What does this fold into?
Amino acid sequence: MGKIKPHLLETIVFLVIILILSLGSYSRNKLWSNPKDLWTDCLKKSPHKSRPYTNLGLAYSDLGEYDEAVHLLEKAVQLDQKDASAYFNYGIALQKKGEINRAIGMLKKSLEIDPTFNMPFYTLGVIYFEKGEYKDSMEAFKKFVEAFPFFPEAHHSLGIAYAAQKQFDQAVAEFESEIRINPYHTLAHINAGQIYWYEFHNREKAIYHLRAALMLDPFLPNRSGIQRLVRLIEELS
It folds into this structure.
């Protein structure tokens, strides 16, 4: 049986979108119906404290107003240069604004202030992946997974970084870990299934994961392509 060329790169590129979209959930404060108004009021009452600037900056970031978010978060770190979470959120705002190198600097500063904080590692992993620095991305995601082994998407993200480096044994192990945490993770099933087939020619596991993805999500992107792959595996085996 001839080896079928993998399309893992296409999958990886698609999945980066998922990583980017998930970033915002780490820094949001949804306890109030209108955080912008709440923290604007707090800022007026406490203009010399860091926290109102941080939280108002997050509110603006959630609204997509990144220039104002960056301005406020910069003020927050000026007022409290030992607040690791302020530097972390400042880094995320800069990343969203497209100022990648400054974002990396702020995220690293956050870790320098508090080496036990660990949350910045996920954002760093995403940034490094976008830059094509897959080894650095992998290392960042590994540190995040060590700190938060049951965090949604953590193992999946690490698996993608491994796959980008063609470390497929480690990649499928991470996808399987993600599936154990969330059996309904269709993209982890798709990635595991493709690797099991294209790289390891493991018919049983490939079909299992690909069929699982099809069953779990009737609106799966490229559903017809996955169905064709399943039929091809069945015919060639």
